[in-house]
Specification:
SH3 type barrels; globular; alpha+beta
Length: about 170
Amino acid sequence: MIKAITTVTDATQEWVARFNEVPVSVIRRLGDYEEIVAFGVDDEVYYDCDNGEDITAGHGVITGIAPNDHFHVAPDNQDGKPLLIHKDDLFRPGTCSAADDLPTWGYMWSFDNPADRTWLESKDGINAMAECGFRVFRQPDFSLIFGTDQAISAQMWEKLYKARGLQWHI
């Protein structure tokens, strides 16, 4: 019997069920991985940069993604003036650099479908993944894989489904 897909939730569940799931421990043992998207919207970050006028250091939250590997950061200092900071000047709490850690969630995923993989390889796909809270890595044995530091929820997957532009539910 063929199940009818009539809602975004049903379509998202069907799509996500096709992903390849890889334990983070396997990626760590294989090594040779490089993060492509280090940060996303709502990520808590530390920053330390020389913006040409003075040295800026502090703590804040990413509020948006800007061109040329820059991020809009809302600092948690008194003046709260938004900052534009390059990705190389951002660090995750508890790390020495952005590239030191894999996602804290126990699993990472890769797309099974070639169309999804092509989308992910595009700049639009990578930016959409970051906007949805996912971090993307390149690892030779798995190509592009993605994970998150957030607890996975149905809403997070649905946001990714919509960002991907799928319409299986129609």
